[in-house]
Structure formats: structure tokens, C-alpha cells
User: Fold Reverse transcriptase-like protein from Candidatus Caldatribacterium californiense.
Amino acid sequence: SLYQLVKERIQGFPSFAITHIPREKNQRADSLASEILTSRVRL
Assistant:
């Protein structure tokens, strides 16, 4: 799962934090997320 993958990858960092930023405060990220979710491209 994505959660497990992230847990494994962050082990190598001395510290790690996730901060929620509302969509309306980060329009560029929201735009990129919407673009990939509506595209036919598989990552």
C-alpha cells in the first residue's frame, strides 16, 4: 500500500512531518492533482 511504502521510505530521514494545506491555498498542486486524475496517463 502507499501508506506502507511511505513508512518505509521515511525511515532514512532524521525527521519527517506532513502538513495539510487546503486546496484553496495551493492552487498549483490542486491543478496538477486534477490534471493527473482526469488524464489517461498511468504513472
